[in-house]
Amino acid sequence: MKKLSELEVGKKGVIKEFTDLEMSVKLMEMGCLPGEEIKLERIAPLGDPIAVAVSGYMLSLRKQEASTIILQ
């Protein structure tokens, strides 16, 4: 199992679960649902935030938020 924050640019994963209950509610409202494929598109020059493609659109997340998403 890998965290979204550990994914390399251009790589994909499938969302399995979340480690933070409060953050998971916000992420699910933005389309990060278990079973959804997610792809890391870009990382900002200083490493934070990251841009991911999920549910048909681009989403910008902080590294701390991405670290709560566990991939399978």
UniProtKB/TrEMBL annotation:
Pfam families: FeoA (PF04023). GO terms for molecular function: transition metal ion binding. SMART domains: FeoA (SM00899). Keywords: Iron. The keyword Iron applies. Residues 2-72 form the Ferrous iron transporter FeoA-like domain. It comes from Mucilaginibacter aquatilis. Gene3D superfamilies: 2.30.30.90. The lineage of its organism: Bacteria, Pseudomonadati, Bacteroidota, Sphingobacteriia, Sphingobacteriales. This is Ferrous iron transport protein A. The keyword Iron applies.
